[in-house]
Amino acid sequence: MESTKTRIPAVFLMLALVVLSASCGGGSGEADFETTNGTAATSKSGEERASKASGASESGLTPAEATVGPEENSSMLPAGGGEPDPAQPPPENPPEGVKTYPATTNGLVEGEVDYERTPPTNGDHGPLWQNCGFYPEPVRDENAVHSLDHGAVWITYGPDLPQRQVDTLRSYSDEEYVLVSPYPDQPAPVTVTAWRNQLRLEEAGDPRLDQFVEQFRISQTAPLSGNGCSGGTGSPV
Known about the structure:
- This protein is an alpha/beta fold.
- The chain folds into 2 domains: 1-58; 67-216, no CATH class.
- Helix content is 36%, strand content 10%.
- Strands 1-6-5-3-4-2 form a 6-stranded mixed sheet, with helices on both faces.
- Strand 3, helix 3 (163-172) and strand 4 (178-182) form a beta-alpha-beta unit.
- The radius of gyration is 31 Å and the shape is globular.
- 32% of the residues are buried.
């Protein structure tokens, strides 16, 4: 009888080991589930990166591809009536380094606008455009962007730019549809901007500045190009 009693606990011990082994197998399945979830999360992150990469590629447009966007209003005539000044097509051979950005909107808004770039290149803007010319002090982004919407080229410079280079930039303001002003927070010493196009330069004497102004002033890319750059706000000197 003692032998039988001894064998019975042994049987129960073996059964316990089988159950424990099955339980461990369940743990292995749970680990597999976590791995699957991790793979799904990695895949989702890949999709997000691909989406961001797609958005980034939009900023790699060429100027010639930058047509007026579907949400941009191009039907307004110049203030006081009349016909807009003739606009030129965007260049096929722009200066090296020009970045072209996607179309957004060009609505009239009150107050400040949170622009994506510094200086801004396009977007909603104030009701009044900045009169073109030279300004020794910074101008409001919202007014300058309205000028860009009319086809102006906006040349901005950092606070540490030597005076002789400032004088060089000022000479551009003698041309129609050119706005020149300082911009304290810009990342380059000189930046030249047209609607949806921008070029950063290290100095005012860079020959690409001439080329940009010539090619992008009153460009067809600006929805209201040719609608004038006077009669707005500001007193250039």
